[in-house]
Amino acid sequence: MKIKDIKVFVCCPGRNFVTVKIITEDGTYGLGDATLNGREMAVVAYLEEHIAPCLIGKDAHQIEDIWQYLYKGAYWQNGAVSTAAIAAIDMALWDIKGKLANMPVYQLLGGKSRKGVTVYGHANGETIEEVLKNLGTMINEGYKAVRLQCALPDTKGTYGTMEGKKNYYELQGNRPLPPEQEWSTTKYMNFIPELFKQAREKFGYAIALCHDVHSRLTPIEASRLCKLLEPYKLLFIEDAVTTENAEGYKVIREHTDTPLATGEKFNTLWDAKEMIQNQWIDYVRTAVTHGGGLTPLKKLADFASLYHVRMAPHGAPDLSPVCLMAHMHFNLWAPNFGVQEFVGFGTPELNEVFQYKVELKDGLLYMDDKPGWGIDFDEEAAKKYPYKRSYLPVNRLEDGTLWNW
Ligand code: EZ4
Ligand code: CO
């Protein structure tokens, strides 16, 4: 089944998404997500100029060979731009294979390992009171796991909070340059344990709670925070330190039994290898989109399973619904699935462009059985929401030093 055409769409129904559509000679098409927040157009150029011309006429069924061709064949293997581009091609090909086989993709992986996908939602707020109010609402909605993020008192902008915005906690809109935020490790360390103390006092220990440090601490600071949080029994602490130096996680591991999660920025299996085989982490957060597609992610899951490490894919609002649906199939299959990050059902604009259906019942996400990923993309609707240049914020310490955002 020959590949006839590859189209790349960039649209902004609330935020920017890069979507790939591969069309075969019999008219079957598949969808993939290539969104790389703040660097979207680099991925578009990679796909249109460097990938698409090589694939026209190739057999859409040869997913593994096409993946190797784009990864090894490029000579420049890894990097966020190239793996997002390869991932979208890989996802679109799996979608096509599912449609041609008349099966949901999870069937092609080996079938379901569970009835539904356990998700964790986000409870954010400007104050502890507001976070706890949102947590209460989510518990009533059936969530079994929730991530808590709270603005730091007297600090301009804290990761995960809204800063007065309604839809997304990351700033979006018509702004020409990255916004700047402020960070104080001292204020943070003094504040966060209180958030979890009050959450446990009010809601008890049945609800699983987690928190994203967003790589802002050093290993020894992170060790201290994880120890301070031990009484509140977190599901995990995410991105306690940056991942370039895997041994940072070894330091934390030696000090605390708070479980650790990381990997939303991993592009390859090799980024995760050292942490997994040393059992320094408990959850790998690599997404289908940023990890190079389903083809490498299933290998990552199998490798992680040898070391008791579970999958907890990244599910931020800057991954498109195509990625969410791919994660649904992956998570239904992966024997060592842990939990899926889930930020809700999207805005009317988003749901006008992407047609898919998921349903939350008792903290588990379900979908209908449809061939492929079970999602469609409305090209005409997408035209109504053109690309808007947009950046993630940058972060500075109080003295002006640039810090991890
Ligand atoms: O900041 O996806 O767990 N979620 C996260 C995300 C990331 C964004 C970066 O584009 O850390 O919100
Ligand atoms: Co994160």
CA-atom Rg in angstroms = 21 Å
Relative helix content: 25-40%
Count of discrete domains: 2
Structural class of the secondary elements? Answer: alpha/beta
Regions with pLDDT < 50 over 5+ consecutive residues? none
Biggest pleated-sheet summary: 10 strands, mixed
Account of the 3D structure:
The protein is α/β, with parallel strands linked by helices and 405 residues long. It has two domains: 3-103, Enolase-like, N-terminal domain (Enolase-like, domain 1); 108-373, Enolase-like C-terminal domain (TIM Barrel, Alpha-Beta Barrel). Helices cover 36% and strands 19% of the residues. The strands form four sheets. Strands 4, 5, 7, 8, 9, 10, 11, 12, 14 and 15 form a ten-stranded mixed sheet that branches. Strands 1-2-3 form a three-stranded antiparallel sheet. The longest helix has 22 residues, at 80-101. Bound molecules: (2S,3R,4R)-2,3,4,5-tetrahydroxy-N-oxo-pentanamide (EZ4) and cobalt (II) ion (CO). Cobalt (II) ion binds next to loops. GO terms for molecular function: magnesium ion binding; mannonate dehydratase activity; racemase and epimerase activity. One of its GO terms (biological process) is carbohydrate catabolic process. This is D-mannonate dehydratase. Residues 128-259 form the Mandelate racemase/muconate lactonizing enzyme C-terminal domain.
